[in-house]
Amino acid sequence: MPFAKRIVEPQLLCRYQIPNEESLLFEDLVSISNVALSRTLRQLSDLAKHACSIFQELETDLTTTNQRVRGLQGRIGQLQHTCSELDPKQEAVRTRLLLLLQELETKPTASPVASAGIPDMISQHACGILHSPTTITSQRLA
Question: Which Gene Ontology BP terms does the record give (predicted)?
């Protein structure tokens, strides 16, 4: 719930004591009406100032909202462009895994143990050769 920023209330315009003498009554009515008109104009000017500040706040809120919307439209446009370039028939490949495999294939082993010290079964498993249990036991026997 928003907090109230302004409170605009009408004020009493013509609080004036009526004199006891009748001759001054009509002279005072003219002055009272002038005071009432001037105070009415003052209240209208205050109301116009409040309206001006309200419209200025609305303008700043609308400009910030407009800037945010333009930024979001730009991001949506970029996403649409990248999505239109994607091919749904092409499989997604993990590039990190591919780069790791390429590095392993191209680089010589930099381990302190030479490749001769690694058992054949471990080196073949690292290269991707799968063995059945019978071939593993036959290799052990040989």
Answer: cell differentiation; lens development in camera-type eye
**Phi/psi-derived region of residue 77, left when phi > 0, alpha when psi is between -120 and 50, beta in every other case:** alpha
Q: 127: closest CA among 107, 104, 111, 108?
A: 104
Separation CA 120–CA 128 (nearest Å): 12
CA distance linking residue 54 with residue 97, whole number of Å = 59
Query: In the numeric block, which tokens belong to residue 61?
Result: 């809120």
Global model pTM greater than 0.70: no
Residues 118-122: contacts with CB under 8 Å, at least 24 apart: none
Residue corresponding to tokens 């730009």: 74
CA angle 32, 38, 40 (to 5 degrees): 100
